[in-house]
Amino acid sequence: MNYEMVIGLETHVELSTESKIFCSCGGHSAAKEPNDCVCPACSGMPGMLPVMNKKVVELAVTAGLMLNCEISRYTTFDKKNYYYPDLPCAYQITQFNHPICTNGCVTLKTSNGERDIHINRIHMEEDAGKLVHAGKASYIDNNRTSVPLIEVVTEPDFRNVEEVITYLNKLKTMLRSAGISECEEGAMRCDVNISVRPEGSTEFGIRSEIKNMASFEAIEKAIRYEVQRHMDAIEFETEELVQETRRYDDLSGKTFAMRNKETAADYRYFPDPNLMPIIIDDEWLKAIKAQMPVAIDEKSDAYREAGISDKEIDVLIHNHIASTLLDDVVALGCDAKNASGWILTDCAGILRKNGKLLNDLEVNAEDLAAIINMVVRGTINRMSGKKILSAVIEKGVDPVAYCKENALDAKVDTATIEKIMDTVLLENSKALEDYKNGKVQAKQAIFGACVRALKNTADIDIIRELLDKKLNNL
Length: 474
Ligand code: ADP
Ligand code: MG
Ligand code: ZN
Fold this sequence. Notes:
The chain is α+β, with helices and mostly antiparallel strands. It has 15 helices and 16 strands. It is elongated, with a radius of gyration of 29 Å. The N and C termini lie far apart (about 70 Å). Magnesium ion binds next to loops.
């Protein structure tokens, strides 16, 4: 008999907020040492009350809009009761009765054409802490306790592994492009619900839920293992399938039963009396919509049309900071392709030199546009532009003032400087010969001669950079 797999996903994503969901402790990724982002509220001290983080609502709504959901104008929190040492209150604040988003849909491009995956709901909740096991003892790290999550729950619409992975990649790209989550390792975790049924059947089979999967690769392997287990159970009666929660062991490549499936009743959900219902009125919804990035598909198309390479587009749609800066600089009149190079090559290079990543970029669009425009107009050459950009990124200077103060708008361009340098090299052929023969000190003499020849016309760092290039190319 032929079988069909049926899969539904519950994906938990940690949100990139400055603070936790119900207190002012630093949010995800703020912590450096265990328990250094913890306060009486998020460590469950009696009498502490939760205070809603508005940003969480806005990010959850943004995710809902991107996934074509209906946004609930009235949304509430519930307590989900269970005991585990990483849950200091012995309940998790989550949404059960009135989740923030419902009834969405996302279209996937797969090798079998387009496929619609329906989103059942998105809800907001707090994460649990972490248990750290060391020998016979276990420690509790509450840094992650109360970090905001959204959980995106799909209908059981997936029919093969490719669809699952395509969906997860698309979700990740979307969330990153909107600054909802960086989705780095461990910040995106899936519960994978799997059942199998005879092809043509309209009823669903008994499902198992594989908990807490962080890697796409492992998800793929776990699905293949689990589907085979189900098929064997149905076809050869190797075991009796029950609805249960399982875990996947990456070493053996197998899944193991953890517990029978809890039902909602086991959790004694009830409305959290400490949190008021949240009302999302037209005005607020409009403001959130106005902040939304353009859909990633449209955005990539627009970038491609502007002549930006596929490689750069890939970086841009995954990097909210870079793409926002690009969009802003373009809005100020710069050419998209040119500006993209300034951001992804020049800014990134300067940051790298300082041991930083593109995500650490803090340049305002006006400053970058000012530099780009000076270069485009020929007021300065590209190298001076780069030098000003470095100063802006590293020291936060004003680009135009810095340019004036350092006489970077001198009238000579790189080609002229190089021509003058060539003459200097000819005049100093002895020093040049020494340098070629390994006498490093000779370089200083050549450099000095260049500086004298170019006095008041070119910047010293630029002279050094061009000379280095020349000498390296000898
Ligand atoms: P629970 O909250 O108990 O985990 P839900 O009804 O919310 O249960 O479903 C959780 C997930 O399981 C959803 O993503 C849904 O699509 C998926 N699911 C439900 N039934 C099946 C099934 N028979 N096979 C595969 N997935 C299923
Ligand atoms: Mg579940
Ligand atoms: Zn706290």
